Amino acid sequence: MTTTSPGAVSSPNIRSLIPARIDRLPWSKFHTRLVMALGVAWILDGLEITIASNVGPDLQLHSTLGMSAAGVSDIAWWYLIGEVIGALVFGRLSDRLGRKNLFTITLAVYLVGSGLTAFTPGGGAWIFFLYITRVIAGMGIGGEYAAINSAIDELIPAKYRGRIDLAVNGTYWGGAILGTIVTLWALNHVPVFWGWRVGFFVGPVCALVIIYVRKSLPESPRWLIMNGRADEAEASIRAIEQGVEATHGSLPPVDPSKELEIQPTNRLGYLALVKVLFQRYPTRSILVALLMITQSFLYNAIFFTSSLVLSNFFHVSANNTPYYFFAFAAGNLLGPLTIGRLFDTVGRKTMISSTYIGSGVLLIISAVLFDQGVLNATTQTIAWAVIFFFASAGASAGYLTASEVFPLEVRAQAIAVFFAIAQFFGAFGPTWFGELIGSGKSRGPLLDGYLVGAVLMIVGGIAALIFGVKAEGKSLEDVATPLSVTGKPAATEAALCRAAAPGLGHAARARGSPFPRRERYRLIMTQRLAPRDLRASDSDRERVVAMLNVALGDGRLTQDEHSERINAALTARTLGDLARLTTDLASPAEQPVRLDGGRVVTGLFGTQARTGRWVAPPVLTCTAVCGEVVADFTTALLQARHTVVYAYAFCGRVRLIVPDGVEVVLDGTTLIGRYRGGTSAVLPPPEATDVPVIEVHAFCVAGEVLAKTPPRPRRWFPLRRR
What is the pLDDT of residues 616-634, one digit of tens each? Predict the structure, then answer.
């Protein structure tokens, strides 16, 4: 089911059904073992943070490390710094070296870091040793996030991916509960000098066991095939299938239309990642950033100051606050475990938006009750548990979204970048809330903080409602096409064309059509021609000849050079042949034949235009932010007969000029803005099915998206009368 062209395994021509073979698997013991081996990452993170918080008072004793209160609070900052560094470094290595290599390395790094923390000598300059070990432990956990989420999503079948990812991410709170139990026992039954060390040593002991279990896990077949290692990918998926068949019998056949044609890409760095995130998937990047930032701010703000609220406003003693924490953590743990299934059945977009908005509304209600003094310590904790029952599921879905809406080649790096951004903003939450709590004399300032956190969660929910991706039950390759995938083999493309018959016009969009938008998009991309391969017209040749004549008159070309280039222009067959003749005579914007139309046009506080003889890609993104974007299709060369335009106008305008006889399909969403087609647009008759189509998806915030035909010259009434 995986074939390569003759030659090395790294041949650029690979056809594979491996993603489809993974998604058709039933749940098996292999998947259970996979989740247990990889899901421990979040448990360890919850364990580490909880233990560090609970042993803080003991670290201030002279019989232990004799640290100051400020020094103890800095432990969390150093651990956070390590997480960010580890996510960025190991995230890139995971995309480069593979998932299995990295989720073994990162766990080993954590084991070393946390283990050394437990052996920190007391007093003096050894405090810096403690900070360094916390950075190392944080690096291991941060790297785990990137590698683990990538591996789980790529190995779990599509119909289970949402609930499993949420359950795994939610186990953070299982680790927090375990950390609280360990520290309560260790600090009350073990001498002070050893008690805090025992707490820090629990994580490394668990890591030793898990490293042994992880050795038997296979590398992600998806990662292997996209990196050109077809033989290894086939061996990996076959081993998985044999294990499933041993308990479930013969597997169902694979749909041959799911076959992919793959050309492995070069290894991508962070510069290429930025281009993918903000040029190819700008709205998805906005969505993930908002989901991650809002939940991180709210969680850090409330979680790290909950004990201060209980002690300052409800007069709960420090010895009793851990018992309230159990209820708080239980609500967070139960949310993803109980309603995670709905993210696969009801859908990502609906559930993410409802959990974010719902938790924000509940927080507003509880904040008002808190300000009025209606709540006591118990009811306040119950309110937090209910709020975070929903918020925890939404926050876990934020990590799920980050790991499934970007291409495989940059998946781990994308998770790492958005995790780092979220931690940066989340770090301000506890500091600000601590200032609002103060000495506990006034509840008004903290009410303002709760309202800000609630509004941020509602903003995240609105973003999910607008930009959300319906990824439930879909293969990862359908959610975000890997950069290595060049399309479907010819036989499959022909089958898709027949399914879409008689064309890509009205019939393809008819209600009940068997040709959905995602498959139509794939067909568009596989039908495209490279700009340089498009055939040149006589008008193209004439424009090039005109520029060559001007260059001769200016003295930029000699007579011999001019004659040679004129002959080449008159015999040129493709646009690439013509473009080479004028490259050194004018700037890119002034070229008579423009091949650099690009897939993204951005007007930021200004005007950007694509006019003249330019090559329009099959998928074009136009973004106007306090500016204007003009895309003139009247003389453009279309790479495909069906062109999709994503138009985003934020306090700006996107203007699309289309020629007569082209079908324009316009839909979208507006917030204090509008999108419309020009009144002079001429559409083909309904029976036409093979006409060029420009499909426009608009999103306007105090902006405008306009699609119209070019203005016609006005005639005076007497002339019209003739």
Answer: 777 788 888 888 999 888 8
